[in-house]
Amino acid sequence: GNLKIIPNKLLDIDYSFSLDNNMETANYHLLKTGLTINNFVTSFEFLEENNFVGKESYVENKTSYNFKNNTSLSFSTRKNKRTDLTEFYNLIYEYKNDCLVAAVKYNKEYYDDKEIKPEESIFFSLTIKPFGKANSPNLNQW
């Protein structure tokens, strides 16, 4: 099933679910919300899969602020509910115009395996529309 509610321009809610034939056991929940107030945009997503559908479960947030001079600052993170660990943090400062997107990106990824260490990266990204995209090497390793 699916339920979508858009009470006004600021808020939207989308809920998808799957139940067994007995209507008692939930196999899938996906809840997405979005809130937009002027230049501030945030969204939350909750996913839970059970039984034959899968085993994934997380809560994710994406938040951004769009400045008036074609620049934006955004942050996103996800927490795995099965392992109770944060999967990643992303922080992006971006400039956009008609044919160019330039960004400085910081990414930190975590792992649930004790032998693998978290990975951090800082890099510069340049996209020339419609030709392509180029990324610098990880500046954190210099």
Describe the protein's architecture and organization.
0% of the residues lie in helices and 64% in strands. The protein has a ten-stranded antiparallel sheet, with no helix packed on it.
How many runs of DSSP E, i.e. beta strands?
Answer: 10
Give the oligomeric state of the chains in this entry, treating copies of one chain as homo and distinct chains as hetero.
single chain
Q: What Rg is obtained from the alpha carbons, in whole angstroms?
A: 19 Å
State mean pLDDT (0 to 100 scale): 88
Topology as a string of helices (H) and strands (E): EEEEEEEEEE
- Give the neighbour order of strands across the main sheet: 1-2-3-4-5-6-7-8-9-10
N-C termini distance: 50 Å
Q: How much beta, percentage-wise?
A: over 45%
Q: Outline, from the CA principal axes? A: globular
Largest sheet: 10 strands, antiparallel
Helix content: under 10%
Q: Figure out the total of helices.
A: 0
Class per helix and strand makeup? mainly beta
Ranges with pLDDT <50 over ≥5 residues? none
Short description:
With about 140 residues, the chain is an all-beta fold.
Kindly list the characteristics that best describe this protein.
single chain; 142 residues; mainly beta; ten-stranded antiparallel beta sheet; 10 strands; 0% helix; 64% strand; globular
